[in-house]
């Protein structure tokens, strides 16, 4: 089996691999790039694995004229920038000790040992610089069947790193065959060990949840997580009941985690998922506007085109109501509109607190008119 792609044949990437090989080392692409290339999906970041030690990688890359940064040197990772493309190169490793969050690792020269510490068989696939797939654990048939399987015993692997519970649901939502469902043993292990999630940092949980919520259809995964008692460790009060309706209403629209999260609900998103201040503020405004009766155009004006569309879709999903006719056009019209009255129009007749109240009153009128009243009509 052979893969190809512009990311693989890219001259700078090939030159970097050649530089490592010239030092008599082996280097392979691994993880997401190989998996996605095999599935015919877009390739994001480039992860590579090698038997060269991190300082050897640094030396060889720099001698070939590339910028090498020891980004994760204590776990063996060097980031090499080659013609603007970032390559994360990690020395083959084996775990010597794990505590559920961190692993003490030792370097290895054995690709099979490196594969054995990866999470899922579909993530333990490698490709050499020519694109020949190397499959130390027999993960290729799993990938082609879109079957998500832990490498080794699920319970053992989860005890090593509880984030794998979340990754299990994320990867099954993104790459699993929905008709296959999730594997019963793995699901049981995730449910049994769910308490371990409480030991993880909220940053790691938040990063995984964004990716899960961005999957094409995260509804079945989140429903299983709720049923298995896992979701409550992630987000208190979350209820995935309306998510399937949301995904249905979205049709082919690009997925947005914010929209899925507002429908999932729950308390303290900011803390639970470590949202940035700006993200948290937008989520609150989104949630508040869903509860109003504002028209799609008014939502577009209040929230902008993306969050305005989120509000229309989320409201329809939560209320189990159909989408308003031509709602996308209306949200876009609202996002481009400007409230036609300014304070200067009302002064000096109105001033002080009364001016603010008058402006607010006119704004409500304008919103209620679906943004159709003109400046002239509003001032009349
Ligand atoms: P994507 O980047 O599209 O989210 P990915 O598979 O590249 O998917 P990363 O999080 O970038 O995922 O990790 C790269 C690889 O490192 C994975 O494919 C997997 O082999 C391994 N890996 C990452 N996190 C873990 C983990 N918690 N436990 C075991 N292996 C992991
Ligand atoms: Mg990756």
Give a verbal description of the structure:
- The structure is a single chain.
- This protein is α+β, with helices and mostly antiparallel strands.
- Among the domains are: 1-144, Beta Polymerase, domain 2 (2-Layer Sandwich); 276-337, no CATH class; 338-380, no CATH class.
- The protein is built from 21 helices and nine strands.
- It has helices at 6-9, 11-22, 32-39, 54-63, 111-116, 140-144, 154-160, 163-175, 184-192, 202-213, 219-227, 231-234, 243-250, 257-264, 269-272, 277-290, 296-319, 327-336, 343-346, 352-368, 375-379, and strands at residues 27-30, 46-50, 67-72, 77-82, 85-91, 93-98, 103-107, 126-127, 133-134.
- A seven-stranded mixed β-sheet has the order 3-4-5-2-1-8-9. A two-stranded antiparallel sheet has the order 6-7.
- α13 (243-250) packs across α17 and α17 (296-319) packs antiparallel against α18.
- The longest helix has 24 residues, at 296-319.
- The radius of gyration is 26 Å and the shape is elongated.
- The mean pLDDT is 95.
- The site of magnesium ion has 4 residues, from loops.
Index terms:
binds magnesium ion; binds adenosine-5'-triphosphate; 21 helices; alpha+beta; 7-stranded mixed beta sheet; Beta Polymerase, domain 2; 11% strand; 380 residues; two-stranded antiparallel ribbon
Please write out the topology.
Elements lengths: L5 H4 L1 H12 L4 E4 L1 H8 L6 E5 L3 H10 L3 E6 L4 E6 L2 E7 L1 E6 L4 E5 L3 H6 L9 E2 L5 E2 L5 H5 L9 H7 L2 H13 L8 H9 L9 H12 L5 H9 L3 H4 L8 H8 L6 H8 L4 H4 L4 H14 L5 H24 L7 H10 L6 H4 L5 H17 L6 H5 L1
Parallel strand pairs: 2-5
Antiparallel strand pairs: 1-2, 1-8, 3-4, 4-5, 6-7, 8-9
Helix pairs in contact: 8-10, 8-11, 10-14, 13-17, 14-17, 16-17, 17-18
